[in-house]
Amino acid sequence: MAKKIRASAKKQKVGSLSNKQKTRSAAKSRVRFTGTGKAKIMKAGTKHLLQQKKRSTRRAGKTGGTVLASPAHKNHLKKCLPHG
Length: 84
Prior knowledge:
By secondary structure, this protein is an alpha+beta fold. The protein has one domain (20-80): Irregular (Factor Xa Inhibitor). It is 27% helix and 12% strand. It contains four helices and three strands; from the N terminus they run H-H-E-E-H-E-H. It has helices at 7-11, 25-30, 55-59, 74-80; strands at residues 31-33, 39-42, 66-68. It has a three-stranded antiparallel sheet with strand order 1-2-3. The radius of gyration is 22 Å and the shape is elongated.
């Protein structure tokens, strides 16, 4: 007697989903790349709780702007953003 094969098993090719690399959604929203391929990230402390910070700190731009990510994070960012 022949074994019954589920309908979903017939349609799916072997290994079709296991080899795809997925982008991390959190990294996607936090990292941008420059034209030369360097990663650019926002500085921390810019979005909220600004009332308790010094006026000079807020005005001097110490709480804003973007910086280039450290080269030490290069391999980690490649894993998180395989297509970026």
